[in-house]
Amino acid sequence: MTQVRVITGFHHPWPNDTGFYVARARGWYREAGLDVAIGPVDYQRGDTLEHLLRYEADFGVFPVTRLLLRRDRNEPLVGIASINHTGLEAIQTICATGIQRPRDLAGRRVAFETTPRGRALLRRLIAHDGGDPDAVIEVDNRGRETIPDMIAAGFADASFGSYWCWDTLLGSYPESERVTWRVDTIGAPAYHSYLLGTQRSLLETNPELVRAFLAATARGYLAAIEEPASALDVIDRAIPYFPRELLARSLALIATSWTHAGHWGELRRELLEPYTEWLAGEGVLSRGDLWVEATRNDFLPRHRSLGTRQPTTALSA
Q1: How many CA atoms does the CB half-sphere of 177 hold within 13 Å?
Q2: Residue closest to 192 by CA, chosen among 100, 81, 72
Q3: What backbone phi and psi angles, to 5 degrees, belong to 15?
Q4: Tell me: domain 2-85+192-294, CATH 3.40.190.10, correct?
Q5: 156-184: per-residue pLDDT in tens?
Q6: pTM of the entire predicted model
Q7: Which CATH homologous superfamily contains domain 89-185?
């Protein structure tokens, strides 16, 4: 058996990682001759891509923007499959703030990770709705998940960057009093949120391992869509410290982003090219064509797609 280490994109597992756990639980990695260890990123040692650069993992899950930034520095990392076919970020607030639409954020305190990309996207969303992005009062959340309870406690008036399929479900604040806008519905450029990738050297030295790993992983994600109750059992065992009901709701939401036209893994030009060009236009990247050298589709399994079942947003706990 060949030992393979996968590092996920969060400091804890979450339902976006379900496909890896299902593939392992079903024995599909083992069938391919792979002994797969799945672990969360250790942010005190850097993000997932930093772990990959130090060869501390064979594969990793990471935001597309981080990959593009590292490719802009000529780091030998490559995205080899998509995890999500949409942006997962959201603007959220609570009814008590009186904020009713994105342009109302002008003059209000918004908590977000104040990176150049984060600032540029927030400004775009406010301007798209006719608001004044210069009037926003920035609150640096320092990478923390800003949940509605924190907004109610006065940390900020709203947050940007929380995930509509995870962060916005957390906390005890009444759901009927929460307000959430998905960025992909309010003017953000289309993009893949998370990708799966590896070192360029692994693609060159062991392409068959890469293909075997991707084939089994595709089976895992597609099985999670087709058999959601079974997938919930798997992810519930992997994440025993979150309520099963929360995992069920998040899994139902996130599963809708895993495929396009029934296929898993394809890195789509229509989600990569405009987004990379936009980042370059905002001065976040030096070039708008970086996506070409940063991503590859040729290791993906052929004809790996859903049957008749499609992702839904309904899943019982």
Answers
A1: 12
A2: 81
A3: -60, -15
A4: yes
A5: 999 999 999 998 899 999 999 999 999 99
A6: 0.93
A7: Periplasmic binding protein-like II (3.40.190.10)
